[in-house]
Amino acid sequence: MLSEAHLTEGMRSVFVELLVHGPLSRAEAARRLDLSPSAVTKLTKPLLQDGYLLQQPVGDRNAMGRPSQPLAVDPARAALIGVKLTEDELFAVRTDLRAEIQRELRRPLISHDVDDVVACVGEAVRDLTGSGKPPAAVGISLAGTASGGDPVVPTSPFLGWRNVPLGGLVAAATGIPAVVVENDVRALTAAQQWFGAGVGHSSFALVTVGAGLGCGLVIGDRLVRGAGRGTGLVGHMSIHDSGPLCEMGHRGCARAYVSSAAIRRAVATTLDRPDLTFEACLALAAEGQPAARRILEEAGEALGQVVATVANITGVQLVILSGEAVAMYDVCAGAFDAALAAHTHWTSTPIDVVVKPFTFSEWARGAAVIALQHRILGR
Amino acid sequence: MLSEAHLTEGMRSVFVELLVHGPLSRAEAARRLDLSPSAVTKLTKPLLQDGYLLQQPVGDRNAMGRPSQPLAVDPARAALIGVKLTEDELFAVRTDLRAEIQRELRRPLISHDVDDVVACVGEAVRDLTGSGKPPAAVGISLAGTASGGDPVVPTSPFLGWRNVPLGGLVAAATGIPAVVVENDVRALTAAQQWFGAGVGHSSFALVTVGAGLGCGLVIGDRLVRGAGRGTGLVGHMSIHDSGPLCEMGHRGCARAYVSSAAIRRAVATTLDRPDLTFEACLALAAEGQPAARRILEEAGEALGQVVATVANITGVQLVILSGEAVAMYDVCAGAFDAALAAHTHWTSTPIDVVVKPFTFSEWARGAAVIALQHRILGR
DNA sequence: CCGGGTTTGTTGATGATGTCAAGGAATGAA
DNA sequence: TTCATTCCTTGACATCATCAACAAACCCGG
């Protein structure tokens, strides 16, 4: 699917524009892409014939002239599968071309043995495919130094892998040739870029709060992948030099304040209630329990400082907050905003912060978007 | 000059490739640009006729086959003028197309009045032009939120300007239509991108040490300009929360440790020798004076942490150090390297740090390169 | 010294891709 | 009904890069 029709460069750009920016008339697409209307007519013709695009019913008419005929990508024309690997579980989703989730599943990882993981991923792909048509591409995301295009995972700390050709192995196990592997935060960033709060912004950052801290960047409409080095390593950013030590020997890393584990541990030990869950800690702080409240304020300050630093260096105007533990923001928005303002340069316009409610399948959805982008853009 | 000949997109890319990567044979240029050899022949023909390119004498022959005929940009085909504005002085250079400085001058700024500054810039441009041909473009760089393409300076704290249409005023005063205004650190970054240590790297960062700290970014072969907000605001990055206050109310900002003024002040007050210059402080530290040595070690640590943070967020592999006070690096390389290593993630490859000896005219040279890039690339 | 091998550079035919000019289509407004 | 407006389509045309073929200039081995 999706590339057997020999997509040319112009067709790709029109297709992406329609995919990302919803139904558009040919004239509107021409304006956006800086093309002539006739070019759009010619470029969309084969895409319509092949069923990638659909004529939309004409919408509201309050303008002059001939009504526009909106075009839209047929989201059901192809399917994607995205898989997120964690230390002990696998999440997988099947989505349509607009990355809307159709089915999802989660499954425990029995071991970190490469063959076991590949078998588990293959089984998930089979189950999600069912009797339907096979997906156009499979994306796999995981923490570590994986980087799009390269099907080899250079290092995965939590799985203990080095130079594992994961993409090729899954392709062989499933018979689906297009398997792409990518860092999990970058995958989430890609999903926001095309189908989330990043739409319409040529540059933005995504900061994730969860087991750790992460940061993805889009600059000039391109996902920043880094050259050899990973990107978005904000977890060890220094916040207070009087804080606790982290495993790298720093004092007061951001992750010592703002990860879900750090918040839970701090509240649980301070209140001597080792059974407290992370959510319970947030609830305590929301109710006004002083220690919990203070710990979350400190977390909010740390997160605000991280976001400000990212924005100060890269110049992004929009920062999206996401991740499993992003609910912490609601409890400490005041402290966060104050820290963000304090660390933001006064000559700059304020930063737009968008908080994205998070479900765990978002990780897998991000992997599906990476697969989609790779399939369409070839990178 | 330089664009009257109606440069097409293909010609531009060949021209830039030859300008930046020195003399290249047609075949080599074709390989680098992913073009066919015949395309390069056709694209270079009009450039050769118009004198923008020169046939180089054939070099060493140790390969098989027909000897290649290197092509190079004629650096004398056009001239650029770059101007750097500071609070009380103006530096200006006239360069050739490869940004080699031909003449330079410095001049005091009598006032911060816009007309006075424009007159002073105009006079400098006239003096540097002399009886020669007028420059193809003029670039002006200054600290603040100026951003390429836009000839208006939104804010300049040290000049007290807001929304000054500097580019247009200088264009009117000099009769040279192409006047480009840009942030000074970005201009320096552009110079490194095309004619410095950044050549051959698609992504790198430049960190400047001087009156303050600055940071410029090139990601994916493009100079990062930021969207509305400035980039590279690393001066207020938090290093120690027990340090001195800065004017924004932070404790232990990077600029409190690593700017030339901060280092000088720290050494001078500690040793109770208010007359000490910055250079003298470096000399004392190099000789082993304990207090000066310690102060410079702390500066090196802070700078190392700044560089590590920039690289961790953006994923650049190369960081160039520059600026008026970059000589401090030689005195504290050990502390810098240790801090850099400590704050760099272990899963990443080490960062290449290149120290660029700095003269003040480099600022103005950067402005010339901005003018050149704008003239050629149209951005 | 002379012909294969090799790489470079040039030329003309070809094809892909976009613009332009012209005009038809579908609406609101007068 | 007629006009203005906007959208969409079509065919002529221009641009630009590739391809195939070939000429040029060198090495090398006999």
Q: Would you kindly provide a written description of the structure presented here, covering whatever features stand out?
A:
The structure is a homodimer. Chain A has three domains: about 10-75, Arc Repressor Mutant, subunit A, CATH 1.10.10; about 80-190 and about 360-375, ATPase, nucleotide binding domain (Nucleotidyltransferase, domain 5); about 195-355, Nucleotidyltransferase, domain 5, CATH 3.30.420. The first copy, chain A, starts with 8 loop residues before the first helix and ends with a helix. In chain A, α1 (about 10-20) crosses α3 and α10 crosses α11 (about 330-340). Chain A has about 375 residues and is an alpha/beta fold. Chain A has a five-stranded mixed β-sheet with strand order 5-4-3-6-9. The mean pLDDT of chain A is about 90. Chain A contains twelve helices and 14 strands. The longest helix of chain A has 25 residues, at about 290-315. The interface between A and B is large, with 52 and 52 residues. The structure holds a DNA duplex (30 and 30 nucleotides).
What is the CA–CA distance across the termini of chain A?
Answer: 17 Å
In sequence order, what are the helices and strands of chain A, one letter per element? HHHEEEEEHEEEHEHEEEHHHHEHEH
Strand content of chain A: 15-25%
Percent helix of chain A, as a range, is 40-55%
Biggest chain-to-chain interface with counts = A-B, 52 and 52 residues
Based on the structure given, which CATH architecture of the largest domain in chain A is correct?
2-Layer Sandwich
Radius of gyration of chain A: 22 Å
State the fourth-level CATH superfamily of the largest domain in chain A.
ATPase, nucleotide binding domain
List segments of chain A where confidence is low: pLDDT < 50 over at least 5 consecutive residues.
Answer: none
Largest sheet of chain A: 5 strands, mixed
| Structural class by sheet pairing and helices of chain A | alpha/beta
Family (chains A, B): Belongs to the ROK (NagC/XylR) family.
Protein name (chains A, B): ROK family transcriptional regulator
